[in-house]
Design goal:
Order of helices and strands: HHHHEHHHEHEHEEEHEHEHEH
Helix content: 25-40%
Shape: elongated
């Protein structure tokens, strides 16, 4: 059916189908956004059928064949496993700076090693979303990070903070550090993916700071019961980031730090190169034209903004995560037209997206 739709000759069929079988079995059929019984190939044929001409269908197929980046659970878990080495390097850099040592010198310095061991015990790991896979993070670091150092949500109650500090006191006493204050000197905020950086930190037009980092820093601690040390390091780690998000967050953190008593660190398991981005300068002008022509303004809402054929914040990503398609990816991949709101070309998604902000009152 696919060969007939694409009008492929036998040699093209021979070239494409082995690749397609491999990717379908290894990745695409396991996308969590598909309903029970759904399979990628049927969805691919339906998706390609929405395009008017063979040239458009060929352009759309090239997007999947040459540009699509699909991260499956095994690959995401690999990035989870890479997290702690990145986090520990940041800790070591900090200790080296405090002791006027180069990072490589900290391995042979007793004072540096003692400080690092204290930091390891006085670090709290906080999951910022379901995608943080904080359960997998804990299992990967069993024996190094205790259960009492991991929290699954950034919304931490007063009683929970008290319990965390009580457990910290026990760990410090067990190590013979009765004179070390039972407060956290580093908090690692962990999440799976940032494309634009705005969810993590942003400044509104009226110069008010918002996002996950400012909200965490603005918790109403009392001076008597403050669980964090003076100059505590707020360390944000993402498994995946775009180059744009990395630069945006670094710039925002530099400005935000001037208003905060905390210090800040940023690390990533991997950063996607800017060369993957699809925008007006992209070399394939036919794909750019297709993204803009096959677009329904009815998919826009107050959260996405307008003209999002390149995705939210115009990130232009050809990216799909196993559990969901980010709205920062090009809309042609994930957008589905609501017939009641049609304002352009009806869109059918290749990888249906589960919205974070859903409309209430929809029938199921």
């Amino acid at each position: 059916m696919l060969a007939d739709l694409m009008e492929w000759e036998d040699d093209r069929v021979t070239a494409e189908l082995p690749w397609l079988r491999l990717m379908v079995n290894y990745k695409y059929d396991h996308y969590q956004g598909y309903s029970p019984g759904s399979r990628f190939c049927v969805n691919l044929i339906y998706w390609l059928s929405q395009f008017l001409t063979l040239k458009e269908r060929d352009t759309a197929f090239r997007l999947v064949r040459k540009k699509l980046i699909y991260i499956n659970p095994r690959e995401m878990l690999h990035l989870v496993g890479l997290s702690m080495p990145e986090i520990k390097r940041a800790m070591r850099r900090k200790v080296g700076g405090d002791l006027s040592l180069r990072m490589h010198q900290t391995w042979g310095d007793k004072n540096a090693q003692s400080r690092l061991e204290q930091i390891y015990e006085r670090t709290l790991y906080v999951g910022l979303s379901d995608g943080a896979k904080i359960d997998s993070f804990r299992r990967y670091n069993e024996g190094f990070v205790s259960n009492e150092q991991i929290v699954a949500s950034a919304e931490i109650s007063e009683s929970k903070w008290k319990g965390l500090l009580k457990d910290l006191r026990k760990r410090l006493d067990k190590r013979g550090w009765a004179n070390v204050e039972a407060k956290f000197e580093r908090v690692c905020l962990i999440d799976d993916f940032t494309a634009s950086g705005s969810t993590l930190i942003r400044q509104t037009p009226d110069l008010v700071w918002s996002g996950k980092i400012p909200r965490f820093c603005e918790q109403p601690f009392t001076e008597e019961n403050h669980p964090l040390t003076d100059g505590c390091v707020i360390h944000a780690h993402h498994y995946i980031a775009t180059t744009k998000a990395k630069e945006t967050v670094e710039n925002a953190i530099n400005r935000f730090s001037a208003t905060s008593s905390y210090a800040f660190e940023l690390t990533f398991s991997t950063v996607l190169e800017s060369s993957i981005v699809i925008d007006d300068s992209f070399e394939d002008s036919h794909l750019v034209e297709l993204l803009k022509r096959c677009y329904d303004k009815g998919i826009e809402d107050e959260h996405t903004g307008e003209d999002i054929w390149y995705g939210y914040k115009q990130c232009g990503l050809p990216l799909v995560l196993d559990h969901n398609a980010p709205n920062n990816s090009v809309a042609l991949i994930w957008a589905a037209t609501n017939p009641e709101k049609l304002k352009g070309v009806e869109m059918h998604p290749l990888f249906p997206r589960i919205k974070r902000h859903s409309e209430y009152g929809q029938s199921i």
